[in-house]
What we know:
This protein has helices at 2-17, 32-40, 52-58, 76-79, 92-104, 131-138, 159-176, 192-197, 207-210, and strands at residues 22-26, 44-49, 65-67, 85-89, 109-115, 144-151, 183-186, 202-205. The chain is α/β, with parallel strands linked by helices. 41% of the residues are buried.
Amino acid sequence: MEIVQALEGIRKELDLVNKETEIIAATKTRTLDEIRVCMGTGLCLGAGENKVQELTEKYVPEFRWDFIGRLQTNKVKYLVGKVDLIHSVDRMELVREIDKQAQKHKLVQNILVEINGGNEENKGGIPLEEVDAFLDEIAKADGVCVQGLMSVAPLDASESRLKEIFSSVYEKFARYRSDTFRYLSMGMSNDYLIAAACGANIVRVGRAIFGERNYSV
Ligand SMILES: *Cc1c(COP(=O)(O)O)cnc(C)c1O
């Protein structure tokens, strides 16, 4: 099956660059059958969805699901208890709601702090300069565990600009790195090898696994 071959190819390429890098399959618009094929290879850490409704419709507990998209506060309640890691946390209002829902379920929700590494307007994520203060604030939320950083690079950036952005996020990550603060989620189909070379240990890959298909991000 094509999905299997594609994944094996990606794994081989990643191994040449960074053996530690794990793959989250970005599964938006893909069917549960396609996702099962993907997870069945054992080559993916989990499935990553970017819309809450799509995730809850496809959700089965047999493998790991992460949430990778922009998250509205009022939808947090549908995710807590289902997703292992929320990659896209970029404001305190969201942290407080995740904390509240996690405590309600008597669990701790793992999250990543999203960085707007390219300082793009109209994009999720906080500027790198604000990370220290944001992490200090989050530390007060007992129901939330920050496991690292995430970033989505600009679509139109050159390779050298991508390296610059990924490396600057890596530097911040390296300063906090610990047994708990252990994930750096950056890189998609277009740039996962660059991201992995810059220290990403999670890449979120969709089209390179499943083939091209039109969708809105
Ligand atoms: C869709 C998506 C990806 C994967 O994008 P591809 O270009 O299909 O690899 C990664 N991260 C996020 C947040 C996404 O929404």
